[in-house]
Amino acid sequence: MATNELLPLYDTIAQCNRCGFCQAGCPVFRTTGSEHSLGRGRQAVARALILGHMELTPEVAHALEDCLLCRGCTAHCFPAIKTDETVLAIRHAYLKRHGQPKWQSFLFREILAHSKRLETAGRMALWAKRHGLTKLAEKSGMLRLVDPRFQKVDQVLPAMGGKGFLRGNQAQVPQPKEVKHKIGYFASCGMSFQFPEAVAATLRVLARNGCATTIMDNTCCGRPAHAYGDLDTARDIARKNIDRMGAEAEGLEAIVSDCGSCSTHLKDYGAMLKDDPAYRDKAAALSQKIRSFSEYLAAIGIEAPGALQGTVTYHDPCHLSNRFAKITAQPRKLLKGIPGLTYKELPESDWCCGAAGSYTFLHHEEASGVLERKMKNVEKTGAATLVTECPSCMMHLGYGARKNGLALKVLHVSQVLDEAYEAGK
Ligand code: SF4
Ligand code: SF4
User: Fold this and answer.
1) pTM of the prediction?
2) Any ligand 1 atom below 6 A from CB of 26
3) Where are the alpha helices (DSSP H) in 209-328?
4) pLDDT given for residue 270 in this prediction
5) Which of the listed CATH numbers 3.40.50.2000, 3.40.630.10, 3.30.365.10, 3.40.50.10700 matches domain 304-423?
């Protein structure tokens, strides 16, 4: 039976001339060497599904799960085929026919779509990690009961020793001496629960640069549901966020997120809801307000930071790279503007680190191969600090540093700027 849901993609898929240039940019193919991991292989599967030469079985769907959705292939592809969109369409078609694992639909629909439940679940996860329950769940095999593919969750997660960032608590936001900009802050799940110290740095740096910041009343941006092909839930989450933030957003100059995946996904709300007459205009208006942290600061111009010592390098999160939001010059400009700091360019800086949301937990072997390549490149720079702008990357790169016994600090751009301002006091 042909997979008719994929028909709209046929013209795009037909542009694949099977040249294989995508081999050069696919981190998964460079690790596994399998044709099915490659852009070319994924287009061939999609074509076979459309023509009815292949059935959309669980085996076919599982074979496509190892895509990072990173567009490394697109950068090397003459017709610039967006393989991530092909893979997402297949995941969506599969989910429509066969459903998704219960834990997955529960997480997306019952937790991530509701800010209060998300907050409670995040705090429970923090508590579990702090008290060794994550390790216990992994060692006892309990996590594998949820999904047999779950691996190394406890090792990959950072220490998460703090209380987490209290989403919705405006009292914790530092205010500027002189208000020059009124902005909102979109609290990402990954930043709030895993890296609250980086969130605190983000808010201090924004205040230092004249921003009166309001914490938005948002839930998850919906990116996890989208990446798993649950596009209906991703659109529902987008509508919820528009309802929660829309009115407040109107009076704000911008809504800033320090998570590269969130900011890029929020910028896509307009496109995601373009066929929904009730939300189309509101979604487009919200998307236009969204800025990533570095993008916003570079645009308003920052106060001169103090001097720091040492060598830093920068890893481009996929969603901020030139293949997605194209926020690449701004973080480099901010880092290079810190006196005394030596900036070294990272070879293959925009190659995915292998985290890709929860990819590293479900495809740990492939993710580890991708991460090892990244860490070797980091070592080549001799940098003592690896900087990025995405909590998923921070988590995975920090794991890479621990796993390889490297004396390497992994920090958000905001943390380096915050240190520089502190040094300049
Ligand atoms: S999106 Fe990334 S992982 Fe997927 S085929 Fe392209 S390069 Fe490979
Ligand atoms: S580079 Fe593009 S056109 Fe060439 S094989 Fe890969 S996906 Fe097809």
Assistant:
1) 0.94
2) yes
3) 223-227, 231-250, 260-267, 269-272, 280-289, 293-300
4) 97
5) 3.40.50.10700
